[in-house]
Amino acid sequence: MSGDLNAAVAAGVLGSEERFRALLRSVVEVARAIFAAKASSVLLLDEAASELVFEAVVGEGEEKLLGTRFPAGTGVAGWVLATRTPLVIEDVRRDPRFAKDVAEDTGYVPEGLMAVPLLHEERALGVLEVLDRKSKFTLEEMELLGLFAAQAAIALDLLQRAREAESALAGDGRLAVVARVAAALESREDEAGARLLAAVEEILR
Amino acid sequence: MSEAELPAWSLPPEAASKIALQSSWPAAITRDWAYGDSTGAGAKVCILDSGVEPDHPKVGAVQSAVVVTAGDDGEPRIDEDTEGDVCGHGTACAGIVRALAPEAEIHSVRVLGPGYTGSGTILLAGLRHAIEQGYDIVNMSLSTTKKDHAAVLHELADSAYFQRTVLVASAHNMPVESYPWRFSSVISVGSHMEEDPMVLYYNPSPPVEFFARGVDVDVAWLDGETIRCTGNSFATPHVAGICALIRSKHPDLTPFELKSLLHLTARNVADRR
Which chain B residue's Cα is nearest to A93? Predict the structure, then answer.
């Protein structure tokens, strides 16, 4: 419980989801800018469902892709996630599965794709994709993408922690009770509230 | 030379003659001696990956295909694989090996599938199976970041090494700890940017030991397609293919000798002499 509480505090507790979303969006915007690409996206692994979810998307396909899910373990992104290995495909349109799935969803099928796993400590949190970059690919670019992915992974880790903390605070567990009591006390400014707080502090001493 | 004739942990004077090697290396090793005229015939190459599409024009016959899944009891189980490839990557690797070693046997062990996110258990079971089958070469264009699995993976890599199964693994080009490519009992591979599929460079600053072609490679993909890809995962099967050529021509070489041969024939080593 104290782990969740710490996570909640560290994450700035409630309302942090939007800020981390903004951070992730900024990550994909920068990725798109660095590689002068048409689009970039972050796919987050939903471990419970074993699915990859488009968590942040900028550029082509933005509206339609956001929130879209597909099973992990298959396709290019699934391979990158499961094998922890980056991959560059120059003519992804010739991948029949990719072309079909993505075209049906967005009407936009990229030509080139760079995909890199987002690794935080031992865990693979998701995949960062950069689509249709302008420049010719070099090995230095791959190094750069790897470095950039490390930063994106930290943002993704923060987002996940914030979500876990929020769900712990919003659920039926004891932590949620404490959170509700704290919120209720915070909104009261009467004598009874102050006395209860003092009593709680007394117990904790 | 059979296993039983080998001295176990020390070498008594009278036993020295028993370990005379069949392959006497000439003073200067040449690529021609190492794998000239070899087709890979007789070498068994295992592709531990996303499966291999059967009868892809760039791959041809696949001698066997199995899939590793989590069984009902949670234990990994191995079944015949009728799905083919769930991504395209395994087919790409098989095609590269086939291009270099046209007569080598290709065996697929699929460790990917819907819902699989790389816990490592499936990967370990797949590798264990490949080693038990006694394949000459196992191509591992993948890695795991789970530290818990590192020790088991290390043991598996060592047992492969001692039974003459050569593990060829992709080096990770990201700032992260991953396995098995870091182990000295495997051959680890990164990419160079040249077009010649037979060109290898030895890296005098390991852990990455060799560089092979890994940029803009035209590879086999799903539905008989060919696509252009880049990554260390495509450099790896180039080394696996060359290993198949060597193993085919010199079947008695140990993984240590084979790795030494890769070193001696690498462009930055052989071409300096």
Answer: B227
Q: Are the beta carbons of B222 and A91 separated by less than 8 Å? A: no
Amino acid code (one letter) for A32: R
Look up residue A1 and give its two tokens.
């419980």
The verdict on a CB contact (< 8 Å) between A90 and B225 is no
Query: Which of B113, B115, B175 lies closest to A147 in CB terms?
Result: B175
Is B137 within 8 Å of B243 (Cβ atoms)? Answer: yes
- Over the stretch A104-153, which tens digit does the pLDDT of each residue have? 767 788 889 999 999 988 889 999 999 998 877 777 788 888 888 988 89
CA distance A171 to chain B (A): 27
What helix, strand, coil percent values describe chain B, rounded to 5?
A: 35, 20, 45
Beta bridge partners of B47: B108, B139
Q: In angstroms, what separates the C-alpha of B215 from chain A's closest C-alpha?
A: 8
Domains and CATH numbers, chain A: 13-167 (3.30.450.40), 171-204 (no CATH)
Q: What is the pTM of this model?
A: 0.86
- ipTM, two decimals: 0.85
Pairs of residues, one from chain A and one from chain B, whose beta carbons lie less than 8 Å apart = 136
Residue A161 half-sphere exposure, CB side, CA atoms within 13 Å? 18
CATH no. of B38-270: 3.40.50.200
